[in-house]
Amino acid sequence: MNRSVLKSITKPLAFVFLLCVAWEIAVKILDVHPVLLPAPSLIASFVFENGLTLLYHTSVTVYEAIIGLILGVSVGLAFGIIIVYSKVLRDATLPLLLAADIIPKAALAPLLLIIFGFGILPKIVIVILITFFPVVINTAAGLASIQPELTDLAHSFKASGWLVFYKIRFPNALPYVFAGLRIAVPLSFVGAVIAEFAGTVEGIGWVLLDAILTFRTEQTIAGIIFAALAGITLFSTISIVERKTMPWYKEDRVAVGVY
Amino acid sequence: MFKIDRIERTTSILLPLAVVALFFIIWEVGVFNKVFDIPLFVLPKPTTIFAYMTRKTSLFLEHASITFFESLAAFVIGSAFGMVLGVAIFQIELLRETIYPLLIMFNSVPKSAMAPLLIIWFGVGQIPAIALGAFIAFFPVLVNTMLGCGATPSELMDLAHSFKASSWMVFYKIRFPNALPYICPGIRIAATTSLVGVVVSEIVASDAGLGYLIVIAQSQMTMSLMFGGIILLLIMGLSFYLIAVLLGKFLIPWYKR
Is the pTM of the predicted complex or chain greater than 0.95? Predict the structure, then answer.
């Protein structure tokens, strides 16, 4: 297992290494100005000198993302369960939830900044808005996708409604719930970054904006690398949790829209 | 039976509309301002916003059309590149072993973080917005194209080989049509997320477009302008999605989800 993992990552890693070497040589030979494209060595030394600061700002954004994610996902799960059991509520809200999932929530960042100020609150609200909808929609779809034979069987054994939910409906919905989480988890970090773009004093969004104003492209790229690592870590975490929770489920890893 | 069906269908259309109407009425009456203690100049009434929008139609149309064409360009460029590269990576083994895992990993990376870098590279204007939107649209189409190309049923391939079909024929007649049910959801994602990329780039730095209007409104506290921009973006997001769905229906009419 470990050997095959190692084998599958050697080639991509070698490719990245070669790319960095080519990049370094190209920048040196063509004498590219560091504002336009800093050499990998310059970026590395920047990361080396400011590693702790970068880590601090990344952790601020991750914190905003995780608080918003916890709130958005729990409300989303609860609401998803409610609308499966209440037909009126489902009819009234499901089309709106589907529409709200599609619209660009990033446009709300400046508005939330005016209402909630420069602090952490507007970031958390954006993250909630971005993570809530995919979770509700997928939870509701998953709970509704139950095979009638299974519930019929449960009813013939006089299983209580709670038991049917706990033993049949919810496990059956898990693949859908995780499909929602695979969208929500990486987007939580993106949402926090976008909210920071609209106005902030700290976080990875600040690192990136500060770099434009001071013309330090190495800071921009270092910020992008830290954001990328945070995004990949969050996505891998949810993938691992998914695999541990439902080892029986072999999913088709279709792309999620991470903007 | 038929009558009940019809009643159900009308309620399923009317109920959400009623919810929206109720929301706007509550907003108009000023409940939000009271409950959340937000003054009227921060949260204006819907009628005020609407009156502002009708007064400034040409301004809104000008910036909306810029954002529209930016996201359209981003969507077309990004998904075209995604499809072509997806096929190329699938066909060439070296690429599949080296950059395929990297691209899969890249799909979960926050692409919006690239906005400041693209603005440094291309300057303030339309190009960084298109570039970010295209970059965002690129990944879901690419990943789904690669997955779709790999999902050809082996029976079909065996059949094609037993008829000595050329590799081009196999691709054109079997692999690609079979990949389309994967590519179309990718295109749907690309259509809505490319707009997000354009707006994010416009919010970071721009000189035109709806994102620019929203940022200007933020700095001037012209809230009707901001809400007008947001409403137009919401409409645009929904229409892009609907267009992508129709495109999918046109490309794979045989496919039922």
Answer: no
